[in-house]
Each structure stands twice: as structure tokens, then as C-alpha cells.
Design a protein that fits this description.
Elements (H helix, E strand, L loop, with lengths): L2 H17 L3 H18 L16 E5 L5 H12 L6 E3 L5 H9 L3 E5 L2 H14 L5 H4 L2 H17 L8 E4 H6 L1 H12 L10 H10 L8 H14 L2 H20 L2
Parallel strand pairs: 1-2, 1-3, 3-4
Helix pairs in contact: 2-4, 3-10, 5-7, 5-11, 7-12
């Protein structure tokens, strides 16, 4: 990634951090962004994945926490992709606004070290970002801080969401959907979590959803880096937030 692009991305992150303090405005701007892209590119699908007036379900979480599998496995279980799902903003803003509307909300959460390590591997191998930058303390710190911001922002909304750990999503997602149904009185079909269904979901989903040996090795390096210096200190705070979310759920 070029220096110019990194500077632009840092500015976008700065702007995102400030705007998220105003959830309704942030959601409106997300809609405007993706609707305008759809006007010029009819194959653009993300305009359907932001929180809208006709949204039926929200699935959100920090990146690399099982979001993509949760969405694709949900659609596979329904037998169609007609359910309008707000997802992958990786922001608490749609969750806050959705909770005010009383929408069904599924929050996925992964232990912070594993989530951040997986995210950095995604940065390196899927987005092609320079390895030195990915491993830089500033990038790792920001990744941990974003984790803390996301889950801290929904602590007061836990009773209005179904919370599922990464392990629950990838091992028994049918039980997770059942919990959503019980909490929100919905009748979504539950995912049959067997090898055949999981393999079919992997086939239909994007490549980064499937485990990779290169990313596994990269993640192991990141896990070591996360335990040192300032990263190690702030990681402890992230672990505390993880405990608050998981222990505070129904």
C-alpha cells in the first residue's frame, strides 16, 4: 500500500471515529455512501447491507469474528438471500439505532487477541497491506482500540441483542439462530451444523472465510507481538471488555 493511500486511510479512520459518536447520522451517511455507489454500479450489493427502513435482522461484530460465516450460513439455512440483513459495518452505530427500533440483533464476538491477529492477517493477505505497517505498534494499537470501542459501545444494549461467541458460531450456529428466534419471537430456519452444510457455505462464500495456512502462520506472529509493550497493556483492557459482554448476556 502506498504512503498516500495510508494517509487517506488514516484520515478515513479518524473521520469514522468522530462520526460514530452520532449513530443516526453515521447510519444515514452509510446509506448515502452505498446508495450513491449503486447508482453508478448496479452490481454493487452493499447498499442492501446497511441499516435501512426495511432491515429485518442485524448481524454485527468486530472484523474476523465470524460475521461472514454467520451471514452466509444464515442465508443458506433460509434457502434464499431475501432476508434483508444489516451487516459488516463493524460499527456499533447500526446496533444502537437498530436496538432503538426493536430489531432482531445478533452480535458475534471473538477473544480479542485472536480477532486482532486474524484481522491483521486479513490486512496483509487479502488487502495486500505492507507487512511492516501491519506489524507496526500503531496499527496493532488501533486494531485493539477499535475492538474496545465497538464492544464497549454495546454494553448497555446486551439485553436487546443475542450475543454469540466465535466458537458458538462456527460449531453450533443452529443453536445461535434458535436463541435469536426465542429472544425476538422470529421464525428463522436454523442452520444444520454438519460438515456438508459448512462445506457448502464455504463454497458459496468469499475465499477469506476459508482457513489459510499462510494466514495461520501470520496470525501466530501477530499473537506474539500483541503481548508486548503498549499492545500488551491495552490488550488486557480488551480482554476485560470481552468478559463483560460474554458474562453479561442472557
Amino acid at each position: 500500500m502506498s504512503c498516500t493511500k495510508l494517509i487517506v486511510n488514516k484520515f478515513k479512520w479518524f473521520l469514522k471515529d468522530r462520526l460514530e459518536a452520532y449513530p443516526r447520522l453515521y447510519v444515514k451517511l452509510l446509506n448515502l455512501k452505498h446508495e450513491s455507489k449503486y447508482v453508478f454500479n448496479r452490481s454493487w450489493v452493499w447498499h442492501k447491507k446497511v441499516l435501512r427502513s426495511d432491515t429485518e435482522l442485524i448481524i454485527e461484530g468486530y472484523p474476523r469474528s465470524g460475521n461472514t460465516f454467520a451471514v452466509h450460513a444464515f442465508n443458506y439455512a433460509q434457502g434464499h438471500e431475501n432476508t434483508i440483513i444489516a451487516t459488516h459495518s463493524h460499527s456499533a452505530a447500526p446496533v444502537i439505532v437498530g436496538a432503538q427500533r426493536g430489531l432482531p440483533i445478533l452480535i458475534v464476538i471473538r477473544r480479542p487477541a485472536e480477532a486482532v491477529a486474524s484481522f491483521t492477517a486479513f490486512q496483509r493477505y487479502i488487502r495486500g497491506i505492507n507487512e511492516d505497517y501491519v506489524f507496526s505498534e500503531s496499527n496493532l494499537m488501533r486494531a485493539i482500540e477499535r475492538y474496545i470501542v465497538f464492544y464497549s459501545s454495546i454494553l448497555d444494549l446486551i439485553d436487546k441483542c443475542t450475543i454469540a461467541t466465535f466458537e458458538e458460531v462456527i460449531s453450533d450456529y443452529g443453536a445461535v439462530i434458535l436463541r435469536v428466534n426465542e429472544k425476538f419471537l422470529t421464525d428463522f430456519k436454523c442452520f444444520e451444523h454438519d460438515d456438508s452444510s459448512v462445506n457448502e457455505v464455504f463454497k458459496r462464500g468469499p475465499g477469506h472465510m476459508v482457513p489459510s495456512e499462510d494466514r495461520r502462520i501470520f496470525k501466530s506472529k501477530t499473537l506474539q507481538a500483541l503481548e508486548t509493550g503498549k499492545c500488551g497493556t491495552i490488550l488486557e483492557e480488551a480482554k476485560h471488555v470481552y468478559s463483560l459482554v460474554v458474562e453479561g448476556r442472557d
